[in-house]
Amino acid sequence: MSRIHVTTKINGDETEFLCEAEATLLDVLRDELGLTGTKEGCGTGDCGACSVTVDGRLVCSCLMLGAEAEGREITTIEGMATGETLHPLQKKFIEMAALQCGICTPGILVAAKSLLERNPDPSEEEVRYWLAGNLCRCTGYDKIIRAVLDTAADMRRAS
Amino acid sequence: MRFEAPRSVEEAVTALAGQTGAHVLAGGTDLLVKLRAEMIEPDLIVDIKRIAGMREIAAEEGGWRIGAAVSGAEMGEHAGLVADWPGVVEAAGLIGSTQVQGRATLAGNLCNASPAADSVPAMVAAGAVARIVGPEGTRDLAVIDVPKGPGKTALERGEFIASIFLPARGARSGDAYLRFIPRTEMDIAVVGCGISLSLDEAGRVTAARVALGAVGPKVILVEAAAEAIKRRVLDEAALSDLAEACSKAATPIDDKRGTVAFRRHVAGVLARRAAVIAEARAKGETA
Ligand SMILES: Cc1cc2nc3c(=O)[nH]c(=O)nc-3n(C[C@H](O)[C@H](O)[C@H](O)COP(=O)(O)OP(=O)(O)OC[C@H]3O[C@@H](n4cnc5c(N)ncnc54)[C@H](O)[C@@H]3O)c2cc1C
Ligand code: FES
Ligand code: FES
Predict the structure, then answer these.
(1) Predicted ipTM?
(2) Number of neighbours of residue B171 by Cβ within 10 angstroms
(3) Does ligand 3 have an atom closer than 6 angstroms to the CB of A155?
């Protein structure tokens, strides 16, 4: 069957790919484009490990078809650091040990960044609700929440 | 399987009507889960998000017309819609996580036809009307008449919902939606209740619509509950009568998430609480 030709922008770069109609954006990112930072936990929208933004909106890449990416702007975890310089959230997660196995981490970082872009001063409750769709089997969440709140405070001071 | 993303309603209708096994794709938060689980094996997927107007929220005759591709997140960011129909917006806002909110739509929630769909009781309470387009042209159908039972809708081949219309909200009116789930986020409603009501200057109910979700094969409009509070202020006695009417109207099943007795009881409790919230909104005491 003929594959679909898609032109899109990923982390600021014009990108073209071919995909089957059934392929999810997650399949395309990982298997076609080698962007394996985006993880697959469940494939059904429950865990958030596959979080990316599409035209600035946080979504699960497992719940979107690759073909839908035509003309959109997608940001993945690979677009978070600037060259060798980590994003403040990435630095803070390392500093505060807000990860253990790390499979949830890319999704949580992408989701947290999207929150701080909308709300630079979230309450703990707001952070917890925003990240309710990002599951973590290891950390017990507390360090993650602290790291996001701490980063937000640092970024407010710096701006 | 083929994928099409038409730019016009006509093209979409032609594509849907011309192919057996064609499915509409809006936010995909139900469709892609079913695709992966092989519960459906579509021959064609028609993405409606690129059709002109599908992503708009437009003022119309004092009410709001919400395009079929508008996400829950976009509804929550629309100040005018939030001010007029906070109950519908909060119901849509309960669907899934932030990520799911970025994609999930009202029409998708309705057409998936789950008895527990959160936005549906709120839309029914609001008196919402679905605008359906298809090979025979355009027709309007009350939201309550769209679902026919679990997984079944009144849509004919080639038809899809282009928009949902929320009518003008009268003076001193308010709506609210509450659901019961075992945790605070990311779960399926055990019971859901949407209420919309209007008050006179003395605070007596002049009109009300009360709808229950997850306690029957499809959403239930409880006319007896509306009758129970009409011409009354919402004091303890009125709220008790409301709760009783809702518990009586519920026709739930026993399953691992709740027994029949529990669900009937909770239907009453939620109705009472939602009525109090809707009343405060109608009086302009809270947003
Ligand atoms: C993790 C997760 C959590 C969830 N939590 C909840 C929850 O708390 N409450 C809840 O109610 N739901 C929940 N859902 C289910 C789902 O998100 C909602 O039902 C959502 O509103 C579906 O909208 P959609 O736009 O994504 O629909 P889609 O998946 O695009 O479509 C759903 C169905 O409707 C059809 N359809 C879509 N749009 C139209 C249209 N305009 N005209 C005709 N047919 C159409 C499709 O063909 C499909 O059969 C959850 C889903 C996930 C993955
Ligand atoms: S892999 Fe997408 S939400 Fe789990
Ligand atoms: S660090 Fe292992 S799942 Fe979160």
Answers:
(1) 0.96
(2) 10
(3) no
